[in-house]
Amino acid sequence: MLTATYTLVALSVEHASVRLSLLSFQKYVRSTLMHQNSITLSQLEYACENLNSLYQACHWRKTEMYLIPALREATERADQLLDELNRLNQAALLSIRMLQEKLGSVADVREDQVNLICESIETFCSSLLKRLEKEEQELFAIARHAIAGETWFSIANQLMMHDKHLEEMKRAGMVPVAAVEAAKPKAVAARNLAGSLRVVDDGQISIPGLQVLPVISVEESEAQAAPAPQVRTTRQLPAMK
């Protein structure tokens, strides 16, 4: 059980980091964008860039990569909870997709669209924060009792190998500052470090088992960038269609 405790503490630390980033961005939106009558293109690009980065960071957590697959194999007791977690994830994704569909690349966003943007971002942040809360309060408790000791050793080893590989990449100067890159497994990180995210014909990033925000390169706006909250971002921005 000491291995289980160690593993769950390590996953909780990762949760805290992602939660802090979500709360920081949520606070930025509430304190700035919600009080504006319009939003500039640079602010809109900045918001979408952060949303994409945060979504990726949530998806590439160790809980998602290692604990949940092990729990699915160990028991069916978590199936209902995992379905609920997936619904929260889809709610976050849907809120941003709706935002992308309704907004064009305009130089200035009207007041009614400001409300739409802020509501979508609020839904996004609230959904992912709720998912993190349920994982810590419910998923971890089920995992502690359902997963066998030898499987905990396997998960702990995966976590250590993950961190070891990450440190090797950092020493080699291969790891960018973006948290989403730091959370990716070896094969995906290596591919993305060599260039931009691979996009398939339908405009979706190719990630196993999950649709994520489409990513394209956009020209940098000449307008001054909005003040940055304490979240890390990538250089790829969600497509604004």
Overview of this protein structure:
By secondary structure, this protein is mainly alpha-helical. The chain has one domain: Four Helix Bundle (Hemerythrin (Met), subunit A), CATH 1.20.120. The protein has helices at residues 2-31, 41-59, 62-74, 79-102, 111-146, 149-171, 179-182, 186-193, and strands at residues 39-40, 108-109, 215-216, 237-238. The chain has a two-stranded antiparallel sheet. A two-stranded antiparallel sheet has the order 3-4. The longest helix is centred in the middle third of the chain and has 36 residues, at 111-146. It is elongated, with a radius of gyration of 19 Å. Keywords: Coiled coil.
Question: What is the secondary structure topology, with strand pairs?
Answer:
Elements: H1 2-31, E1 39-40, H2 41-59, H3 62-74, H4 79-102, E2 108-109, H5 111-146, H6 149-171, H7 179-182, H8 186-193, E3 215-216, E4 237-238
Antiparallel strand pairs: 1-2, 3-4
